[in-house]
Every structure is written in C-alpha cells, then in structure tokens.
Amino acid sequence: MQIRLRPLIYTIIALLLISAATALFIKYVIKGVKVDVVKYFPFSEESALREWKEKILRGKVLYKIDASNHERFVLATSTGTASALFYKIKLDMDKRPIISWKWNATKFPLKNGKENLKNAKHDDFAARVYVIFPSILFTNTKAIEYIWTEKVKEGTISPSPYSKNLQLIVVESGLKENGGWVYEERDIYEDYLKAFGRKPRYKIGAIAFMTDADSTNSDAEAFYDDIKIGYKSERQVEER
C-alpha cells in the first residue's frame, strides 16, 4: 500500500510542514532513558483526535476514542479501507529523537500465501506507525514505518514494494499470548542508520499511524495509545 504514501506525504508538505510544532519539554524516563518529550498524545479525551489530520487513501478507516477497563485509547477498524492520521511536528535528528507508544493488533488483514513485505498485494497491516522526513524534492523524502505483521519475523527491515525511500521495520509479529498492550520505544536516529545505511539529512516533519486492509479487501483492527515523541536528554547524548 506504499504507493498511497505519496499523497499522504504530499498532503503533509502542502500543509506548511516546515513550520514547527512548539511545546514545552516534559521530562520522562522511558525504559531507563531520560527523554524530554516534545509532544504527548494520551488519547484520554473524546476530542483527542482533533489534533490529527486524516488523509483518505482508499475509503475511511474508522478511528475513534474507545474505552475498556477505565482506560481510553484509539480504536482503528478497517473494512477494506485505508486512511491515515498524521500530525505535523518538526524535530532535529541530531538531537537524537525518541518515539514511544503502545498498541495492540487484534485482527490481521487476510493475505494469500506466505506474508511477504516486498509483495504489493500484501501491503496491508493491522498497525503501522510512521516517522516522515520530508524534502522539498519528493524523490528525496524518506520515511520509516514501524509495522505489526502477522507472520514476518520481528526485527526484519525491508524496503517497501514501491520505493527504497520507505523502509519497513517489523516491530511485532502475530497475536500476543496475553492479548494485551505492547509498549514500544524506538531510537529514531539508530533506526534510520540501520534502515538507510547512512546518517539522516533531513529533519522529522511528521508522524502518522494507520490500520489498513484495502489491498487485500479484508478487515483489520488495532488499538493505539500513549504516543510520545521527544529527545534524549542533552547529557545522555553527550555521553554517547
């Protein structure tokens, strides 16, 4: 489904992507790493999704604030559709940005044969989180896509079926035994080096998340919550 990433990125750039989101830093400790959080999305209010823009790619995915056990989160349900929610934010890669979130994939799109990241017909995923690095020249725009697959091995890194400028990183695979939330924390700088084999040239311009099942004309469902993005503390960066 990555061919549909093109209009998504064009939309982000067109909406004054070069203007940075401003926020006071909030200090968190994430897995023992001190992080100055620039933006935090707890999705605890009904209005929480108003900050996000939707790009409809092929029909609308249902994104709504839901609740279970007194906890609120985003429920994403795709019935043969694809649309992404994105948020414009400018971060400097030299400051070692960190992104964290929790999610839960509960229904995977139906794929014929062995799941293959390089097969465009398999380009549907229960859950994805994007970090986008826009350039004035679209051909230089890059993105990392953290995905939750059904069967591909965790840790796999692969270019998309459509462009080497979009690199897929398999963070989770399959249903989890306890069926609960999974927490993620990623060093975007390190992931960029692994995925593209070189230091980043451009700043982060946006983040996004999406559940889709249009390429397979099937169904998919996932939950998202507690998205945080920020920087490692300056002292930790210097010690590296």
Short description:
The protein has 240 residues and is mainly β.
Describe this structure in words.
This protein is mostly beta strands. It has a single domain (2-239), classed as Galactose-binding domain-like (Jelly Rolls, Sandwich), CATH 2.60.120.260. 10% of the residues lie in helices and 47% in strands. It contains three helices and 14 strands. It has helices at residues 5-14, 188-196, 234-239, and strands at 26-30, 33-41, 53-58, 62-68, 71-79, 82-91, 97-107, 127-133, 142-149, 157-159, 166-173, 182-187, 204-212, 219-232. The strands form two sheets. Strands 1, 2, 4, 5, 7, 12 and 14 form a seven-stranded antiparallel beta sheet that branches. It has a seven-stranded mixed beta sheet with strand order 3-6-13-8-9-11-10. The longest helix has 10 residues, at 5-14. It is globular. The model is unreliable at 12-24 and 236-240 (pLDDT under 50).
Query: What is the CATH class designation?
Result: Mainly Beta
Are there runs of 5+ residues with pLDDT below 50, and where? 12-24, 236-240
* Rg, Cα atoms, Å: 17 Å
What is the domain total for the residues?
1
Q: What is the CA–CA distance across the termini?
A: 37 Å
Outline type: globular
Extended strand count: 14
User: What is the share of helical residues?
Assistant: 10-25%
User: Oligomeric status of the shown chains?
Assistant: single chain
What is the overall number of helices?
3
Task: Determine the mean pLDDT.
Answer: 87
**Biggest pleated sheet:** 7 strands, antiparallel
Content-based structural category: mainly beta
CATH architecture: Sandwich
Q: Which percent band covers the strand fraction?
A: over 45%
- Output the helix-strand order: HEEEEEEEEEEEEHEEH
